[in-house]
Specification:
about 220 residues; Rossmann fold; Arc Repressor Mutant, subunit A; 2 domains; five-stranded parallel beta sheet; globular; DNA-binding; Sig_transdc_resp-reg_receiver; transcription; Tscrpt_reg_LuxR_C
Amino acid sequence: MSGEQPDIRVLLVDDQDLFREGVKVIVDAQEGMSVVGTAADGVEAVRLVDELAPDVVLMDIRMPEMDGVEATRQIFAPTRVAAREHPVRVVVLTTFNLDDRAATAIRHGASGFLLKGTTPLQLRDAIRTVHAGNAVLAPTDLSTLLEQQFRAPVTPPAAYVGLTEKEREVFDAVARGLSNTEIAARIFASESTVKTHVGAILRKLALRDRVQIVVFAHEHGLVTR
């Protein structure tokens, strides 16, 4: 790498030694990223996130001692988040497509999931994508996952009611998976203006990223058709 930007620091979490070593070789071979630690269960993963401050965690969903869902929940506990100097992103690794446990992990703060059979290039791109604050699965797939868990409408919280009309319009577009470019065209504004609105929405709703906007929208029955 050129040295202008630090490597993306990756923590690998999986109970299978062979799988961990294989993924480590793949990640370390990519430009701009490196493995800073490995863990065999969720308990060790939570401890190493606190100790090593990785940028991205590749988290197996099914493990002994503590599974990936509970580990993700603990990693994103408010006290831990507040103590960090920079954000950490979690990508869940699973053998099942549209895994209900993966949906729960996303609700707890994960930025999406990958199938364990993914290619090295897909893995590399996923790490870069979540490091930038985006999801690693299509909005339609994320919506399908979340719709399985949230069916009854819920009264919107006061923070959502406090959004401006334009912010609600942007919120709705983000929740349906539109990019900043698509949202800009829709509301007849510049992309920088859209980014400003998204930032205001995240701040007002106390959310971390766009993925959490999608989760919030489904939790409170705010997804329009």
